[in-house]
Amino acid sequence: MLLVQNGILHTMEAGGDIKADLLAADGVIAQIAPHIPPPEGAEVFNAAGLHIYPGIIDAHSHIGISEEKVGLQGDDCNEGTTPVTPCLRAIDAINPMDSAFHNAVAAGITGAMVGPGSANVVGGQFAFIKTDGRRIDDMVVLAPAAMKVAFGENPKGNYGPNGNMPATRMAIASLLREELFCARQYFENEKKGGAQPDFHWESYRPVFEGRIPLKAHVHRADDIFTAIRIAEEFGLGLTLDHCTEGHLIPAEIAASGFPAIVGPSLASRSKIEVEGEDFKTAGILDKAGVLVALTTDHPVTRIHQLPLCAALAAKKGMGEEAALRAITINAARICRVSDRLGSLKQGKDADFALFDGSPLRLETRVHATVMNGQIVYRAGRP
After folding, report:
1. CA pair distance 2, 213, nearest whole angstrom
2. Cα–Cα distance between 165 and 31 in angstroms, integer?
3. pLDDT at 380
4. Which of 205, 207, 272, 363 has the maximum number of C-beta atoms within 10 A of its C-beta?
5. E strands within 131-201?
6. 282: phi > 0 → left, psi -120 to 50 → alpha, else beta; which?
7. Which has the closest alpha carbon to 33: 340, 344, 351, 328?
8. Which residues of the chain fall below pLDDT 50?
9. Residues 331, 333, 337: CA angle, nearest 5 degrees
């Protein structure tokens, strides 16, 4: 058991900010109250003057798949040999020994949505994981958590120059539409007793059952609309990842009801489709009524800089409270793990971080990070 006393709790729940004690037991938040007597055997952490936030969440990253410092040998992000690979599973490529995980934990980042990159039209299955551990199976919160699909320059650039499909945006949409059509037909035949088990099509089962969304790599406004069009055509869930030109079409995105995961905005405008990249996008979408989270797209922007990205979004019109929600409870909701993560509430996982100020302040330090009720990082300790 861990008892954190005298902290300022930023719950991200309706109750708002409160000064209280927090008791963690058996990996979850057992109690939040003005004063909790220390249970026998409990570790006590005096958090007087410290701010306690739910663990920060990156809603889209490639941590452990695109390893830092390793180069080609540690880059398992894109299976760029065939454009449709729904069977790929992130959990088979994430290396928890990647040094970026320590950076994340030390920054108060306790959760990340991790999966393949955007070279393929269908890239494979994302997993939502915790950032502390040695065995990926023990770090998983939800797997599969999303099915990666990609539009725009990346699939075109990976296949078109070699004379292969897709070479155009029309071909990207056609390949995806054909995949989803055949998957739907497989499940319809199954209901009639006419389908043989097929590993390829079984990968789409959680998508068609509504348990996980399509996770669409989209930058340009026209690609955003194509992703929405196809998702609506098949009645599927969808997240709009990157959403670089989202500030140009906020009303239309809001009307679709699909959430946006904005970023990486702390990166160079390295290709044509991201020339509109700006930190204002998240705030414009949030004010339009879109559910918004932020992403570093690690390693495009390094994962521990997520609070800085939120601060810059706040500065460009999102506001501090909305920016904090974008890296906590909103991210958890979009990633479909809000029953366990994203806020401080009795019964949720005891994943939180203790700061000496707002995480959005450059000078703020993380004093400790707690995951599953255990202190996994403490400032000044190895």
Report:
1. 36
2. 56
3. 82
4. 207
5. 140-150
6. alpha
7. 344
8. none
9. 95
Rounded distance, CA 152 to CA 240, Å? 13
Do 344 and 11 touch, CB atoms closer than 8 A?
yes
**pLDDT score recorded for residue 241:** 98
Q: How far apart are CA 77 and CA 94, in angstroms?
A: 9
- Sorted by sequence, the CB contacts under 8 Å of residue 327 that are 6+ apart come out as 56, 57, 58, 293, 294, 306, 307, 310, 359
342-354 pLDDT per residue, tens: 999 999 999 999 9
**Helix/strand/coil for 221:** helix
Neighbouring residues of 347: CB distance < 8 A, sequence distance ≥ 6: 28, 29
Q: What span, in angstroms and rounded, lies between the C-alpha atoms of 12 and 322? A: 10
The Cβ of residue 80 has, within 10 Å, a number of other Cβ atoms equal to 17
Report yes or no: 354 and 368 within 8 Å, Cβ to Cβ.
yes
pLDDT at 156: 97
Q: How far apart are CA 130 and CA 136, in angstroms?
A: 9
* CA gap 106, 238 in Å, rounded: 31
Phi first, then psi: give them for residue 53, nearest 5 degrees.
-120, 150
144 preceded by cis ω (within 30°)?
Answer: yes
